[in-house]
Amino acid sequence: MEVDTEGRPLFAPAADVPLAFRVESRKVPVPPHRMTPLKAAWPKIYPPLVEHLKLQCRMNVKSKAVELRTSHFTTDSEALQKGEDFVKAFTLGFDVDDAIALLRVDDLYIQTFEIKDVKTLQGEHLGRAIGRIAGKDGKTKFAIENASTTRVVVAGQKIHILGGFKNIRIAQESIVSLILGAPQGKVYGNLRTVASRMKQRF
Questions:
Q1: Disulfide-capable partner of 79 in 5, 53, 65, 68 (CB 3.0 to 4.6 Å)?
Q2: Number of domains present in the structure of the chain
């Protein structure tokens, strides 16, 4: 055995062998109303999955699902979970560019809740609550997104928020207060205060 001047053994450099993983697969169901947008955005969806995460993927039109699978090229043990989160974010209604952030940035989450979890509303009251969250031409929703640096999707009675843990909480508090009937002016004021505090922190 060869040793260096200090008496430490000399070994040949280890070969660069890709990490061996068991081949796993996941199936992400796609709602019927998201199939057409998925087909249109597919050229933008599969490159991050194949090139960045080194996964094998296909769109199964018959079973309305996106199928993901690891292979011997996959090096990241969390690749399959990240890929599933990315596709799931798109099926919930988020834009492809926003969903890609889940692959590139750590500590991003999706929070989903329903209006009835906050307050039981029916008929016109429910419609008005959804209208208050969106605002005229979507202004209120954009204001919440910009102040809390999150992305919000209002899909019927369900609300999906994509962002960091603290940011999701800020956006959720604003949406909850709108559902409970708080005037939009008051919510805007609270958002301005929160946004200025966040700027001071960073």
A1: 53
A2: 2
